[in-house]
Write a structure and sequence with these properties.
The chain has one domain: SH3 type barrels (Roll). It is elongated. It is an alpha+beta fold and 118 residues long.
Length: 118
């Protein structure tokens, strides 16, 4: 059984086959936190997932946060004063490490959080 799984994973890697299909992800349409490989942390509505690539709409980048120790905590309990969040962009493509759905309460609060100004 393990050998079959390993062989299937190797085949997927070698052929470029995706592990997730766009329409299969359960968080599509939800407000989420995305941890990326090299572009930091972003929030927004998950439009699609294609392997490691995600598309967010109404996307904002979180440069610095206070009031939460982890991104999981941020997604459920929010942030406090001093957090630095960018202006929203209509759509962005990112390479994800993880996708964390936000609570309904934090969806509203994070969307309304004032954009950081220099």
């Amino acid at each position: 059984m393990k050998e079959e799984m390993i062989m299937k994973l190797l085949e997927m890697l070698l052929t470029g086959e995706k592990t997730e299909k766009k329409e299969d992800h359960p968080f599509i349409g939800k407000y989420v936190v995305i941890r990326t490989y090299s572009a930091g942390v972003h929030i927004g509505y998950l439009k699609s997932v294609d392997g490691c690539e995600v598309i967010l709409t109404e996307a904002r980048q979180i440069f610095y946060w206070k009031g939460a120790f982890t991104l999981r905590e941020l997604s459920q309990n929010g942030v406090s004063c001093g957090t630095k969040i960018s202006i929203p962009v209509p759509e962005i493509s990112l390479t994800k490490i993880e996708i964390i759905p936000c609570s309904k309460e934090q969806e509203t609060k994070l969307k309304e959080y004032k954009s950081y100004e220099v």
